[in-house]
Amino acid sequence: MEPIGFHSILILLSVAVVLVALFRFLHLPQILAYLAAGILVGPYGMAWIPDLDSTRTLGEFGLVFLMFTIGLEFSLSKLVAMKTIVFGLGGAQVLISTVVFGLVAWWLGVAPQGAIIIGGMLAMSSTAIVMKMLVEQLEQTSRHGRHAMSVLLFQDLAVVLFLILVPALSGELQQSVWSTLGGVAIKSMLVLVTIIFLGRWLLRPLFHQVAATRLREYFMFTVLLLTLASAWVTQTAGLSLALGAFLAGMMLGETEYRHQVEGDIMPFRDILLGLFFVTIGMMLDVSILRQMWLLVLACVAGIILFKTILIFGLGRLFALENGVALRTGLVLSQVGEFAFALLLQADQFHLFSAAVSQVVLASVILSMMVAPLLVRHNGNFAKRVFPSYNRARESKLGVIRAEADNAAKHVIICGYGRSGQNLAWMLEQEGVSYFALDLDPVRVRDARDAGKPVVYGDVTRRDVLEAAGLSRAVALAISFHNVASSLKILEITRHASNNMPVIVRTMDDADLERLNAAGATEVVPESLEGSLMMGSHLLLLLGVPVSRIVRHVRDVRRDRYRMLRGFFHGEDMFDGKETHAYQERLHSITLPDKAYAVGKLLAELPLEKAGVSVSAVRRGGIRGPEPVPNTKLVAGDVLVLYGAPEALAEAEKILLQG
């Protein structure tokens, strides 16, 4: 294998740095910059870097770490929580797309083995582009954003199956296809079960010992060894490197060292992923593209149109509104980076000709270049195609108006997460009314069951804030730390009133000046407030007199700290980003007529043994905090429980079944 030269590395890095800066200036994903860099410097572009085996090997390492990251972020609990949309909408989209695109490829002369893989490639969408742009546009928690992420979650799972299929389809298939696939399936299951079994029994004790050394480089080397060893095992078994890396990531993702692993592996992953996309760009033969440009354009148009229509139709079957279904289809209409992973594997096993590979590669790259335009303007497309979509949104505003109709001289709380709930509790203690808006439907449902004035609504929209009584409110609090959203809310609020106090939460003082300039009355940087609070406690210990506010903070910490620890997590309890210290939470349960707990005293139920405490009971619209042990439960009671997720599940079973 001829090594890549120093001058080639220098050229590659220089071009990549310039193009990433240019694409960032144009607000385009950096994946496209890496692809463009590969096209420019590769053997079919300027030919500054020859097509060497060493560059492709680096690309394979990038693929390994891509799949390792997917495995690390893979959450079985999240998959189960959203199973209807993930397996229903996501499964149908991948299956139908694979079959249709595969049949078209077969009809155009591609061998059946290659046609199946082409179908799987084109069924995938770009997680990197879609997630980045949805977050930038504040749409990741919208209805179409959540459904798009559910489909992407299933695609992450499906790509593993296709990576197993590639080696299986690479033979001559002289025996029947089903017997070949059956043999590969049995072999795959044996390998998977062996790796997962060994991982569950050996991984946690191993990393306990490694972490005990407190040597960061030793920890990092162990992670790299585990990843590459797992990849080598699956490759030796006739499967793919990427599959083993995915399994290694999935096993590590179930341990308490997940966040440390993610932080340590990030630099390697980002560099190698960049090289992976560069090597993909180097594979594109521009001359063939010039000869077949009409076919490529037809393929891109067909892919985008078919996937949009398919997802729209499936969305309607799953009871989505016309506008939401169309927006979900537009967001997912492109082909994604997993197509490159499958293409690289298929190219190694020669599943289709070079000409077919070039057409598919060009179509994938062009669809990804069109994707930012479609994602950015998905809302405008939906409004133009379905004018009734705006009327449906108006009806939801009517719900918010009805809920906030009696609210006056209240505080609008934007975001009902941990900070928003703590803020609401303090307002309740002082008898100040509030009205909260949040985009997590599970959190909103739990909070409303507990009798809280919380509704579902996007606080970055002017009409939502106006429906929540912005003109009648005495103050507004932004309880989440998202600077882009905060700036948008400040613009809306200051347009309505220049005098209304607005308090904004942020992580640190990096954006303090921008937020103040945008009209924030007070900006609360958490890192600075933590230091101030430590200073307050130190002064208390030294006997320095304090104000009423400091006494109130001291009383909250001393007497009511337990009430501030728990909060309604909603769907973000499944995102895997919380540490063990924050796993305890609040959860509301409504007792049906035939529940086991109906007619029994709280003291008779072994809830404390399960590790759960009852922080409140709501009955007939009246909420009683800290109920006494001899409280007798009746049907329709809403119990607000506090505890860890496993304990809450056990407590729910006790209350309902005994």
What report would you give on this structure?
Mean pLDDT is 78; it is low at 559-565 and 572-582. The chain folds into three domains: 6-169 and 178-384, Na+/H+ antiporter like fold, CATH 1.20.1530; 395-534, Rossmann fold (3-Layer(aba) Sandwich), CATH 3.40.50; 584-657, Regulator of K+ conductance, C-terminal domain (Alpha-Beta Plaits), CATH 3.30.70.1450. Strand 4 (475-478), helix 23 and strand 5 (502-506) form a beta-alpha-beta unit. The strands form two sheets. Strands 3-2-1-4-5-6 form a six-stranded parallel beta sheet, sandwiched between helices. The chain has helices spanning 6-25, 30-41, 53-73, 76-81, 83-107, 112-123, 127-136, 143-169, 177-212, 216-236, 241-253, 258-282, 286-291, 293-317, 322-331, 337-348, 354-376, 378-385, 388-403, 418-429, 441-449, 462-467, 483-496, 512-517, 526-541, 548-559, 561-565, 645-657; strands at residues 411-414, 434-438, 454-456, 475-478, 502-506, 522-525, 585-590, 613-619, 622-625, 638-643. The chain is globular. 64% of the residues lie in helices and 7% in strands. By secondary structure, the chain is of the alpha/beta class. Helix 6 (112-123) runs antiparallel to helix 16.
Number of structural units classed as domains: 3
Low-confidence stretches: 559-565, 572-582
Total of helices:
28
Beta-strand residue percentage: 5-15%
CATH topology of the largest domain: Na+/H+ antiporter like fold
Principal-axis shape: globular
- Proper CATH architecture of the largest domain: Up-down Bundle
**Major sheet attributes:** 6 strands, parallel
Q: Average pLDDT across residues?
A: 78
Main structural class: alpha/beta
